[in-house]
Design a protein that fits this description.
This protein is mainly α and about 350 residues long. About 55% of the residues lie in helices and about 5% in strands. The strands form two sheets. The protein has a three-stranded parallel sheet with strand order 1-2-3. The chain binds tryptophan. Tryptophan binds near residues 13, 14, 16, 17 and 51. Pfam families: tRNA-synt_1b. Keywords: Aminoacyl-tRNA synthetase, ATP-binding, Ligase, Nucleotide-binding, Protein biosynthesis. Belongs to the class-I aminoacyl-tRNA synthetase family.
Length: about 350
């Protein structure tokens, strides 16, 4: 489904809200793809700190500190600043400016109908006390995407309404400008579905406390794997086991490269006679091996945070040039150029 695999013409914009360390769910859902995409496309990766504030305004220090933590996670998994431009959203004022103009291209009713927003309002228990900035963050996201004229936006399934909303704004603006200034984009949704939490809940999420962070120590990995939800009906080793909803096997499907060995293990488990501890042992070994180099690279980069900050500064400068160019075109198109 990827349009043109070796196509530097396509620009990717993607990003994360820096509210906590990245975990295996991010690794499967986006990080692995970004490491691949950076060789195929021009890729911009944004630390969406301003967006993160839309539901964290009471705790700005958390967002500030996690900008560095998430940047370290990016570098640790192999996102290469020579190939991908990593930047900080809040340091590009043009994104805020575009948001302010675009706000007039959407209605409050349309924002209230946005399925992502509706769901997130429930998750956050905002009920009627919704910060206006939160309700309108899809417009800010449209500004992020369109400022870069990104044609591809890798996001999870839950973010598809954001892409639809972005394209509505892009079309409205272009119609208004009578010129195709902004570019419509396409969501790139990973083929592999969402990784469940270690407790079997549908989503791995820091707020649910069911994560395996990329920076976990060997002891933390061991403890997390011990807690992995398996088959509640598999009480004795001799009992036949079930694979459906069995998180140990779902993780093995995602990370075990020995597919034949894994299939044999599954057959044995379903037949009966294979204990959970053996399955978990295999999973733990794979995760320890996979996360060790990531953790070590992270520790190495973390020794020189000044250098990471400089990388972010360079990336932000480069990104701002593009955003400023688009904003200039936008201003001219809507009569905001006087001098
Ligand atoms: N909303 C995205 C998320 O929560 C983060 C994000 C902000 C983003 N701006 C973006 C993703 C632009 C892609 C493109 O994951």
């Amino acid at each position: 489904m990827l349009p043109g695999t070796e196509d530097k013409k396509h620009l990717i914009l993607t990003g994360d809200r820096p509210t906590g360390p990245l975990h295996l769910g991010h690794f499967v859902g986006s990080l692995r793809n970004r490491v691949k995409f950076q060789n195929q496309y021009e890729q911009y990766i944004m630390l969406a700190d301003a967006q993160a504030l839309t539901d964290n305004m009471e705790n700005p220090a958390k967002v500030h500190d996690n900008v560095m933590e998430v940047a370290l996670d990016y570098l640790a998994v192999g996102i290469d600043p020579a190939k991908s431009t990593i930047f900080i959203q809040s340091q590009i004022p043009e994104l805020t400016e575009l948001t302010f103009y675009y706000l007039n291209l959407v209605t409050v009713a349309r924002l209230e109908r946005n399925p992502t927003i509706k769901q997130e309002i429930v998750l956050r228990n905002f009920e009627r006390d919704i910060p206006a900035g939160f309700l309108t963050y899809p417009v800010s996201q449209a500004a992020d995407i369109s400022a870069f004229k990104a044609s591809l936006v890798p996001v999870g399934e839950d973010q598809i309404p954001m892409i639809e909303q972005t394209n509505e704004i892009v079309r409205r603006f272009n119609r208004l400008a009578n010129k195709d200034i902004l570019v419509e984009c396409q969501a790139l949704v990973p083929e592999i579905g969402r990784l469940p939490g270690v407790d079997g809940k549908a989503k791995m999420s820091k707020s649910l406390g069911n994560v395996i962070n990329l920076g976990f120590t060997p002891a933390e990995i061991k403890a997390a794997v011990r807690n992995v939800y398996t088959d509640p009906l598999h009480l004795r080793v001799a009992d036949p086991g079930h694979l459906e909803g069995n998180v140990a096997f779902i993780y093995l499907d995602a990370f075990d490269e020995d597919k034949t060995g894994l299939q044999e293990m599954k057959d044995h488990y379903v037949r009966g006679g294979l204990g959970d501890s053996i399955v978990k042992g295999r999973l733990e070994g794979i995760l320890q091996d996979m996360l060790k180099p990531i953790r070590e690279r992270r520790e190495e980069y973390a020794k020189d945070r000044g250098q990471v900050l400089q990388m972010l500064k360079d990336g932000t400068r480069k990104a701002r040039e593009i955003a400023a160019q688009t904003t200039d075109e936008v201003r001219a198109a809507i009569g905001l150029k006087h001098f």
